[in-house]
Design goal:
This protein is about 25% helix and about 30% strand. The strands form 4 sheets. Strands 3, 5, 6, 8, 9, 16 and 17 form a 7-stranded mixed beta sheet that branches.
């Protein structure tokens, strides 16, 4: 096996045009680690933030830096004491490390096996690579932070994006009533995912539209968007309602509202549960748009628009 691999990387912080594609050293699995041959790697807004240096004051970084916190692939080799997986196993994971350097926009990645879960049997590799970060973000936001239960009414802002598409499906699986906010062109898509009602944020005051749909108010708002939708809809929360955001660390809110900001954490156990839901037909993969490794800069430009539908992935 070659000791080199192709990767997309940066040697300094900057815009998407600073991303290079070339050969870097292929990693070797250390103790408790596995080497994964990457089949797809999800592209997320955080990847653009990493390239631009927006996280450098919060998480250490080293160059050359390979972005990418999502991965789906095949176990190629195992390090000492790595026993959870066998060579050839199909795995996926959210692979944020304490130091940002060895990401998934490459042909190979080596990481602790504790980060990984068996990928869903029903998903193609391209689909699986778009699941971990977005899926875990939705899961932890709805269930760990939002405490969503059967019978709750859940308002999801940014429902047609990567995180939102999973949130719609998870909330419906739990037995909640789901109101999805997105542009009108995505409403049929949200209905297919299970949304009970939809609101077009471009043509409506979101709060007024939601009040017509759920006159008694909503139990939970999950905010995975930017813009005025959260401000407009805050009044729809019931007393002691729950607000969860992945985009706003401290929104203006009533004192009775229970608020939590979520920055997703790796969790293989939760990923195994998501795999189970996918394989049992409760969750489908979001719409996927694939880019070649050489198109990483283009993919990052597109994800910066914050108006993508579903997920984008890099396929080495």
């Amino acid at each position: 096996m070659s000791k080199k691999m192709k990767a997309a990387y940066i040697e300094e912080f900057g815009g998407p045009d600073t991303v290079k594609t070339g050969e870097l050293d292929r990693p070797e699995p250390g103790e408790g680690e596995v080497l994964v041959r990457v089949q797809s790697a999800g592209v997320n807004p955080v990847d653009s933030a990493i390239v631009r240096g927006m996280l450098k004051d919060f998480i250490p970084s080293e160059f050359p830096l390979i972005p990418g916190w999502d991965v789906a692939g095949v176990v190629e080799a195992r390090g000492y004491a790595a026993r959870r997986f066998s060579e050839g196993d199909k795995v996926y994971g959210y692979v944020r490390r304490p130091v940002i350097q060895h990401g998934s926009f490459a042909e190979y990645i080596s990481l602790p096996e504790s980060y990984l879960a068996h990928s869903p049997d029903k998903l193609a590799p391209e689909e699986a690579g778009g699941v971990p970060l977005a899926g875990l973000t939705a899961w932890q936001s709805l269930f760990d932070a939002g405490k969503v239960q059967k019978g709750d009414t859940v308002l999801i802002l940014g429902a047609s994006g990567g995180v939102g598409t999973f949130a719609v499906q998870f909330a419906k699986w739990k037995g909640a009533r789901v109101i999805g906010v997105a542009s009108s062109g995505n409403h049929d898509y949200l209905k297919e995912l299970g949304a009970d009602d939809t609101v077009d944020y471009k043509e409506n005051h979101v709060g007024e539209a939601v009040e017509k749909i759920a006159s008694a108010g909503v139990d939970v708002i999950f905010d995975c968007s930017r813009g005025k939708a959260l401000e407009q809809s805050m009044g729809t929360l019931i007393k002691n309602g729950r607000l969860v955001s992945i985009t706003n660390r401290d929104p203006d809110r009533r004192p009775d509202i229970r608020f939590e900001y979520v920055f997703v954490e790796p969790n293989a156990r939760q990923l195994e549960k998501i795999s189970e839901l996918v394989d049992n037909g409760y969750v489908i993969a979001p719409v996927i748009k694939a880019f070649r490794l050489e198109e990483t800069g283009k993919a990052l430009q597109e994800v910066e628009s914050l108006h993508t539908r579903g997920k984008m992935v890099i396929t080495p």
